[in-house]
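Supplementary notes for students who missed Thursday's class. We covered one full example, reproduced here. Read the sequence, then the structure, then the short commentary at the end.
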Amino acid sequence: MTLQEIQTRIESNLKTTHVQILDLGGGDHIRAIVVSTEFAGLPLIKQHKKVLDLFTKEINSNEVHALTVKTLTPEQFAAL
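Structure (token representation):
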């Protein structure tokens, strides 16, 4: 799975205002930074689950060995 495919899947399934995908090494260790209005009011674990659930098949098959997620609301992102 390419970085662009990961980004496209996230953008297609969540109401995002910013998505950044980084390869942390080897193509199977990925970091996704996702900013979405859908995260407002949700605990961090549920925010991460919304993203990780999009890649269940790829994680289970080890196509994506490790997907680290950083989630933010637009307000949190603007404050950085």
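Commentary. Residues 3-13 form the longest helix (11 residues). The CA atoms of residues 14 and 36 lie 7 Å apart. If anything here is unclear, bring it to office hours.
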